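Extended Data, panel c. Modelled sequence:
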Amino acid sequence: MKLLIALHHRFELWTAPAWVRERLQTQFPQLAIVQLSDYSDVAQQIRDSDAALAWSLRPEQFRAARKLRWIHSTAAAVHQLMFPELVESDVIVTNSRQVHGPVVAEQALALMFAVARKIPAAVRFQQQHVWGQEQMWLEGPMPGELQGATLGLIGLGSIGREIARRAAALGMRVLAVREHPERGGAEGVAAVYGSGQLGELLGSSDYVVLAAPVTSSTHRLMNATRLAQMRPTACLVNVGRGVLVDEAALAQALRQKTIASAALDVLEKEPLAPDSPLWDMDNVLITPHTGSVAPRLWERQYALISENVRRFLAGEPLLGVVDKSKGY
């Protein structure tokens, strides 16, 4: 049985370390494991692979796979794998949403704290050697508090649930919108809305956090109409995927003060173009997609991957299975 590891990225952390293959080979000596250093040989190596660790495949590469039964994505988002041939096949897709949930939740809270306490403004004053206490109080929104604020959470998957639990522990009132509200909420969620009630949630929230999967219905979900439904004092926080937001509409809303601010860890095109107006807006905080960046990332990835390899070899149900018909 063959396992192909095809995970390569210009950013070193997203590339599987060599020890992942070595440890898997020791733990599962019955496997033939091939780890690629780039993508040039994917089509050839996937032909006789039974399983693959990969966050993306091209349709022609997938068509070349004669034995493939399982793909595991080390990302949480799997929209890049949801092409018709794969969706309609019997190949199981799993992802690492449970790996990324806790640390991305911390990123969301960090962004909200930074906006509430005006940390970006404090950094600008520090760089100018200015003691800006009075200016921070008088200029723009006053420093605020998360305790007592309302968080509108769009998406209640593994990341959303972790955000809700932590936000509620800080004293925030958490509202959530999900595609199937009949499934209920999660720890810390005060109320669950259906997709048709999104406008009501937006109008009730001090912070709107995007943690939804990428689907046809969520692509550019936050457009000009939706942004106009937010409070003028509210902040939009995106830790999901950049394509959830219409960035031109967001820039316009920020210029016109339709909303007060935005904190973005993900952008539609990354890196963000140097000429994007978002860079220079004082009411925008940008972090360079560091929500999942953490020193123990691959230890957590390995724990999930190795357990799923064990289950795959034993014919047991896998963890983190993606509903391909829904795309998440």
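The chain has a mean pLDDT of 97. This feature is highlighted in the accompanying rendering.
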